[in-house]
Amino acid sequence: MVAVRLPLPRVCIVTPALASANNGNWHTASRWQRFLAPIASVEIRGASEGEAAADLLIALHARRSADAIARWRERRPNAPIALVLTGTDLYRDLEVDAAARHSMQCASTIIVLQEAGLARLDAASRARARVIVQSATALVAARRPGDADFVAVGHLRAEKDPETLMEAARLLAAGASASPTIAHIGDALDAPLADAARATMAACPAYRWLGAQPHGTARRAIARARALVHMSRIEGGANVVIEAVRSRVPVLASRIDGNVGLLGAGYDGYFAVGDASALAGLMRRFVDDAAFAAHLGAQCAAREPLFRPAAERRAVRALVADLVAPRSSRR
Questions:
Q1: In a 3-state reduction of DSSP, which class is residue 83?
Q2: Residue 186 CA, distance from chain mean position
Q3: pLDDT tens string 130-161
Q4: Is there a smaller number of Cβ atoms within 10 Å at the N or the C end of the chain?
Q5: What is the C-alpha to C-alpha distance for residues 153 and 136, in angstroms, rounded to an integer?
Q6: CATH label, 150-307, candidates 3.40.50.2000, 1.25.40.340, 3.20.20.70, 1.20.1290.10
Q7: If DSSP codes are grouped into helix, strand and coil, which group holds residue 120?
């Protein structure tokens, strides 16, 4: 008997950012496309492009993909939508934006990127929700002369709170000890913040704003740093935190749900959101206290298995399998 090969289900991933943006939403969409390639036909579309004909819509960001979600639900009232809450939608937009709330109503399944995100959902939404923790490949690199002590990766915009890092750099420069070196990677999405970064470089030679960098360059910079600094005020579950942990690099992180959900409530590398003095003190302690640095490294190493690609791949494939039956079975 000749085996009959069933047609692959068609999946459209809608994302507010494509490759040129080089941000977390794009990397999530691209990674999920790779994970699904053996079991589905996957097309990535920008949220402004409109959704492709498909059996399942996976939409990243409730507000920024709201138009595509609304069109899909109007045209395909019974077709599934998986809504991925990626950060500012979960921690801000759902409270103030009607379009974001409509996206939630349209969704068949809701995905959050770390366990703490579930607490932000009401009971009805939580019943339709699942957690899919993002992943990264392992990349370990030896430090070289000239590599920065600390690396921060995030475009210059208010949600990423670059000003807290800049103020911490100024506080460290004013101290009696030599300043640890800081490399700040990210595109200038806000002109005043770019001006502030240039002013900080002029005042603090240990701080360098490197602007936008290719993903591979940023990953290597993280892997060669002593620690990653992640200052975000709003975050769904940052890829760069996961990349640091997969590179055996500890993280100094703002105490927000998006970071606590990844690193754990008992992690000892947090500082209060927007507290430049606390961040500077944490950076100084990390540099001066080898036992403390090793302790943070051990805590991150304990979380590392959560961020391996195999776990995320299984979860993404299970999502599609749960929402889309083989096409031939629906004839």
A1: strand
A2: 14
A3: 999 999 999 999 999 999 999 999 999 999 99
A4: N
A5: 15
A6: 3.40.50.2000
A7: helix
| Residues pairing with 45 in the sheet | 14
* CATH number for region 10-135+308-330: 3.40.50.2000
Give every CB contact of residue 36 below 8 A, 6+ residues apart in sequence. 11, 42, 316, 317, 320
DSSP 6-41: PPPPEEEEEES--GGG-SHHHHHHHHHHHHHTTTSE
Q: What is the pLDDT of residue 5?
A: 67
d(CA 187, CA 194): 9
Tokens of 270: 């947090």
**Cut 0.85: pTM above it:** yes
* β-sheet with 109-112: strand ranges across: 41-46, 10-15, 56-60, 81-85, 109-112, 129-131
CA atoms of 254 and 273, how far apart (whole Å): 5
Closest CA to 25 of 54, 62, 53, 51: 62
The length of the chain is: 331
Q: What would the two tokens of residue 56 be?
A: 């399942």
Q: CATH 3.40.50.2000 in the chain, residues?
A: 10-135+308-330, 150-307
Rounded Cα–Cα distance for residues 9 and 79 (Å)? 12
